[in-house]
Amino acid sequence: MKLRDSPIYHEKQSFWLCAKLQQELYTHADLERIAKYLHELHPEQTGWLKFNSHKNFLGFGDYDVNVIASALQEHGYDLLWHDNRSDIEEADLSNSVGLIVHIQPEWFFRRGHWFAVKHFNQVLTTPVVPVTYVGQPRAARSTSPERGSHEYDAKTFEPGFWNLDSKLVHPEHIGDRKDLNEFLRQLSKRNRVHVLLIVPLNTPSTASLSS
Description:
The protein is of the alpha+beta class. The protein is built from five helices and nine strands. It is globular.
């Protein structure tokens, strides 16, 4: 099965554009526009260097949560922060259409990274992409169109949560809610992790969430 035949939309990360949310709703230009608007809305927050604090100053992306939230609001969604003082299993996902996870490695010089997690209600058959290693054929390692035409084994997965991290070659199946809880706990052992729920606008927060 070819990557391009996968039923899950997935966009590989380019530069630091990890906040693309894995939907064909936003372009680099859209996120740049939002970052520019937020910068002009509160110029006093830029500091004496006058850099746009909502993005990488070289134009490579690396957008902050304000840009992500504004982009979602344009399409009728909002973000609710999970309160890290409570366990992730206490979060009410009944109104959530997906999660955005921010990882900040403990090592000071490592950059943070955003990625999305989404639940699919249907059974999906997707390509199974092995972990990349140096000895693989170039077509299997390349990010060029050759990779899209490379044939992989296919596997069918039950409905569940998927990791749509743009650094992955292909989305990874996480499993059910119990598996998601464990997945996030394991991430928290190695990083500072913040979980944000994507919900329809005007969804009230609950005791386990803070907006």
